């Protein structure tokens, strides 16, 4: 006798996430304050990316000239798109320059990538009769951060060759299904389809194939999450044991039969502890190394030829992901090379997105310095990186000269975007936001937009469609 699939218990991880989306009440003022800063920073990163043609060539409708009635708007543009395509546009802008927030654990990623799907769907719903406000967007951001970061704490996808954007797809699917009015069961159904997608591979993040896909992969993931959520709301079925099914489920195929582990219950921990890239667009495992390199700049700028070796002490994850020797072929390769980023800091006393471009990479001194670098693991750094009470991202640099002298080590344990440096970091984050807006908008509009984020209660009350209109080009 056939079993009614509705009687099959869903996988525990699917149940846990669906319960959280459906029932969790977020009451942390710190989480909402941080989400407000996160929203500003994420939109600013997207606006800044519009100055790069390799990004903008991917944006807009699939068929040029298409305008969707009451469609989602894309900040910084005049596009009016369906929510799936809008999610890709917004998500790609956000991620393009590797400048939005980061979460580091057993698996790393960028939880604000989910804003692509959240904002596109919330805007679309607001334009079509739903009374969603920016409070709903902030709540969805907190929950997406928590789902993505919660799964990342103890479960490493990159170790089995899969890319962290699977967690963007999963988190977007869950919260967007909730925004669309999905029930607990519908969230489970949608999530099961997201996990069955699993992939993509990490091929495009590593030599010799490092390429620009890593800059639009998150946009692709968040848009797929929207698509799966909308399909589910149209009645598409789910797969209750997509994770645990023998032989064919995610656990057996990828993880040797081991189920996902959650370090703690889902709440608002990830948003409260999220890491902001404030000072420069550098892969986050390198943020403190670049900060140290820039601190060295006044001491070494006139002694570059006398440098004999540069020792970088770092943590295991940095070695696994961004320790690169040999040729670097494009900006996507360079912004994930620890040695390249340190070299730029030593040479220029700064690091901007433009430093990754081909014309800047022609500076022969960069490779001269890279060849003198030695990267080694500091066991304490690796341990503190995984400690949930610390989550440090430490790096230390020592520079040796031909006369036998040396400077350093300079150690930076926590980057300026860390929770432990919030009071120092948030004013700089809003300065970054304002500077990014000026790349696209007039001074008057920049002042108005920035002021909205200084009054959270005012921000939270704004209907989503009215908020998005403030960021579009007419």
**Amount of beta strand:** 5-15%
Helix content: 40-55%
Intertermini distance: 61 Å
Rg is 22 Å
Task: Quickly list its features.
474 residues; alpha+beta; four-stranded mixed sheet; two-stranded antiparallel ribbon; 22 helices; 6 strands
Would you mind describing this structure in some detail?
The chain has 474 residues and is of the alpha+beta class. Helix content is 49%, strand content 7%. It has 22 helices and six strands. It has helices at residues 12-23, 29-49, 53-56, 83-95, 115-126, 134-152, 165-179, 184-197, 213-233, 250-254, 269-273, 287-300, 316-322, 331-334, 338-348, 358-361, 364-370, 379-386, 422-437, 443-452, 456-461, 464-469; strands at residues 72-73, 80-81, 307-314, 373-377, 395-401, 406-412. Strands 4-3-5-6 form a four-stranded mixed β-sheet. The radius of gyration is 22 Å and the shape is globular. It starts with 11 loop residues before the first helix and ends in a 5-residue tail after the last helix. The mean pLDDT is 92.
Chain-wise SSE layout:
Blueprint: H1 12-23, H2 29-49, H3 53-56, E1 72-73, E2 80-81, H4 83-95, H5 115-126, H6 134-152, H7 165-179, H8 184-197, H9 213-233, H10 250-254, H11 269-273, H12 287-300, E3 307-314, H13 316-322, H14 331-334, H15 338-348, H16 358-361, H17 364-370, E4 373-377, H18 379-386, E5 395-401, E6 406-412, H19 422-437, H20 443-452, H21 456-461, H22 464-469
Parallel strand pairs: 3-4
Antiparallel strand pairs: 1-2, 3-5, 5-6
């Amino acid at each position: 006798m056939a079993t009614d699939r509705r009687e099959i218990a869903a996988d525990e991880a699917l149940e846990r996430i669906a319960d959280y989306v459906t029932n969790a009440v977020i009451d942390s003022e710190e989480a909402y304050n941080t989400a407000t800063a996160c929203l500003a920073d994420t939109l600013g990163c997207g606006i800044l990316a519009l100055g790069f043609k390799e990004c903008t060539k991917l944006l807009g409708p699939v068929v040029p000239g298409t305008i969707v009635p009451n469609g989602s708007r894309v900040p910084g543009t005049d596009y009016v798109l369906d929510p799936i395509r809008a999610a890709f546009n917004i998500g790609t802008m956000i991620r393009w320059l590797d400048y939005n927030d980061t979460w580091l654990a057993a698996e790393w990623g960028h939880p604000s990538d989910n804003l692509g799907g959240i904002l596109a769907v919330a805007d679309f719903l607001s334009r079509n009769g739903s009374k969603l406000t920016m409070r709903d967007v902030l709540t969805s951001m907190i929950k997406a951060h928590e789902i993505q970061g919660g799964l990342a704490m103890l479960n490493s996808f990159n170790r089995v060759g899969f890319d962290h954007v699977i967690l963007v797809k999963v988190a977007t699917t869950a919260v967007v299904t909730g925004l669309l009015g999905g029930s607990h069961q519908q969230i489970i159904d949608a999530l099961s389809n997201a996990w069955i997608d699993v992939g993509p591979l990490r091929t495009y993040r590593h030599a010799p194939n490092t390429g620009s896909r890593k800059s639009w992969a998150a946009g692709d993931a968040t848009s797929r999450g929207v698509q799966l959520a909308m399909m589910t709301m149209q009645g598409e079925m789910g797969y209750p044991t997509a994770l645990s099914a023998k032989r064919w489920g995610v656990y057996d195929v990828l993880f040797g039969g081991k189920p996902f582990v959650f370090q703690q219950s889902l709440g608002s921990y990830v948003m409260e502890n999220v890491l902001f890239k404030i000072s420069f667009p550098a892969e986050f495992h390198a943020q403190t190394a670049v900060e140290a390199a820039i601190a060295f700049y006044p001491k070494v700028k006139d002694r570059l030829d006398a440098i004999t070796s540069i020792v970088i002490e770092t943590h295991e994850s940095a070695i696994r992901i961004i320790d690169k020797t040999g040729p670097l072929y494009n900006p996507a390769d360079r912004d994930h090379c620890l040695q390249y980023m340190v070299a730029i800091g030593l040479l220029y006393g700064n690091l901007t997105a433009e430093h990754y471009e081909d014309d800047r990479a022609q500076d022969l001194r960069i490779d001269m310095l890279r060849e003198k670098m030695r990267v080694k693991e500091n066991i304490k750094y690796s341990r503190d990186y995984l400690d949930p009470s610390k989550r440090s991202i430490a790096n230390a640099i020592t520079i040796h000269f031909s006369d036998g002298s040396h400077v350093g080590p300079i150690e930076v344990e926590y980057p300026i975007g860390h929770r432990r440096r919030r009071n120092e970091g948030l004013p700089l984050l809003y300065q970054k936001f304002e500077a990014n807006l000026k790349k696209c908008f007039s001074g008057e509009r920049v002042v108005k937009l920035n002021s909205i984020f200084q009054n959270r209660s005012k921000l939270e009350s704004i209907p989503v469609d009215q908020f998005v209109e403030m960021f579009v080009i007419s």
